[in-house]
Amino acid sequence: MQTELEVMLALQDKMNQKVHPDWINQDFAWFRAIWIECGELVDHYGYKWWKKQTPDMAQVQLEIVDIWHFGLSMLIDGRDYAEIANEIQQALASDAVAQLEVIDATEALAGAILTTREFSVNHFWALLVSADMSFDDLFKQYVGKNVLNFFRQDNGYKDGSYIKVWEGREDNEHLTDILLALDASGADFADQVYNKLQERYPA
Fold it and tell me: Which InterPro entries has this protein been placed in (predicted)?
């Protein structure tokens, strides 16, 4: 887990630098991005008791990965990746992960981030478990979404020219298909994901 955590921290730092070279000193409101992602997650899961809804767990899991992006950003703050990765593992070892339903776990995380404006690894892990995700699932989907974020930036996300919906489906949905078809253990996994996105993207 240590190695994978360090890889994800390094990738997140690199992504943030692509958006803004001096991102650490910009004091971005990561906490706000997290609770808004929590709302989007609940929307994908379904909360409307007055109509029939079926949880879209693939999209729920992608929202969890988005939350992890912002959580990692809050944890980095210019610190050593190995130190942060070790702290994450210690937090998980010292506290039992709550067994909650998806919406309850999501609301617990949102409540914690709004109250403390600090990222709670344990609240996040409870959400991860509630959605039947393993650490390996998180790693694979995180790398995939990180690549998608780079792909978006390379194709005009910042200036507004990026096309997010292709053939009637959002890019996140295309990413889900791509990840299901690829092996995350390959050294060129990230490159494969990028190339597959490029193949599907409308030129």
Answer: dUTPase/dCTP_pyrophosphatase
